[in-house]
Amino acid sequence: MDDILNIVSEAERNAEQNNRKAVIIQPGAIGDCVLTLPLAESLKTHFGIGTILMLGRSQYIEYFPGRTCIDGIRDLDSVDLHRLFVNHKEFELADGDSLIGVFSGFEQIITFLGQAGSDFENNLIFTANCSNPVEVTTLQLKPGNNYAGHITKFHLDMFLSSQASETKAGEIDLKKTYIIPCKTDLANGQKILSSAGVDTKQKVAIIHPGSGSTAKNWHIDNFYMVAETLREKKNSVAFLLGPAEMETFKPEIIDALGAIAPLLVDISLTEALGAISCASCFIGNDSGLTHIAAAAGIPVIACWAATNPVHYHPVGPNVTVFQLDSSDFASPCPQKADEVSKTAIKLLTS
């Protein structure tokens, strides 16, 4: 009888937790969204939240459900959030307003949109509490210059400081795998690589030579040198080019990359995750794809210069950051390219 009662009690506790819901409003780019996952996981692990929705750019988070702690997504553009930016004294909601329904049923709303004490925050609090009591927390996307820790710890510290109760949460695990590719991802990844002409019988290194900002891109000649060295050592290499690279790279650069190794182009973010998941090594800049690869547990080499790696380095179990000075970053540097190549070869042969 005791065993049955324990089972029933456990089921009731699980049902109660699953009914506790939170939404995270994250308007940032791919990397920002990935670096929000540790906070989301902490909500589930330490705060008893059972279901978490992320409201963001769907093209950046399309692969989250089923592979991360995020249970569902909704596109920012599908919600009239611009209405929340009006002067709080002029803000009005009609009975049955669609905005009320958007935030109905959540007990926690965490937003990276708007500022603490702003009209947006006040209007969001008013809207969310029209249906049920909700705790709204506004977090900064970036830490101040004096903050010494990683951005994921900054998020958690800010959230904890906003709570009325002194709830304690464990430390953020910067070595954890936060994205778990599914079997379909791996199967599709193999198909994508094979269709592009990549020899998947060998260990594969995927190189992403771009990012969302040209200031974050290591000089393209260095990626040429790294790819050629890896190929000389009988490793398979593929260049992954997203929309940003196809838009900003000159045709002659794309042609030169294709002359060295197969190109992975015109694929979705979910398909890119599949291809990356089949790699034994990922080499990239400070980019969203580098953050995805690291969080998915792929051995990553990140070439860094424009931002502080202490704050923004990728989270994952096997990440090597090359912090380069401006001269080594913005120009061909055979010595640094050789160092990156040697590190990649170790990863590919381990």
Number of helices: 16
Helical/strand content category:
alpha/beta
Number of domains: 2
Query: What oligomeric state is this?
Result: single chain
Q: Which value, in Å, is the CA radius of gyration?
A: 22 Å
Coarse shape: elongated
Which stretches are poorly predicted, pLDDT < 50 over at least 5 residues?
Answer: 4-15
Q: If you consult CATH, what is the topology of the largest domain?
A: Rossmann fold
- Portion in beta strands: 5-15%
By CATH, the superfamily of the largest domain comes out as: Glycogen Phosphorylase B
Termini separation: 53 Å
Which CATH architecture of the largest domain is right?
A: 3-Layer(aba) Sandwich
| Spatial strand sequence of the major β-sheet | 8-7-6-9-10-11
User: How many beta strands in the DSSP annotation?
Assistant: 11
The helical percent reads: 40-55%
Top CATH class of the largest domain? Alpha Beta
- Average pLDDT value? 92
N-to-C order of helices and strands: HEHHEHEHEHEHHEHEHHEHEHEHEHH
How would you characterize the largest beta sheet? 6 strands, parallel
What's the helix and strand layout?
Elements: H1 2-18, E1 21-26, H2 30-34, H3 37-47, E2 51-56, H4 58-61, E3 72-75, H5 98-102, E4 108-111, H6 119-128, E5 135-138, H7 151-162, H8 183-195, E6 204-208, H9 220-232, E7 236-240, H10 243-248, H11 251-260, E8 263-264, H12 269-277, E9 281-284, H13 288-295, E10 300-304, H14 309-312, E11 319-323, H15 326-330, H16 334-349
Parallel strand pairs: 1-2, 1-4, 2-3, 4-5, 6-7, 6-9, 7-8, 9-10, 10-11
Helix pairs in contact: 3-7, 8-12, 9-11, 9-16
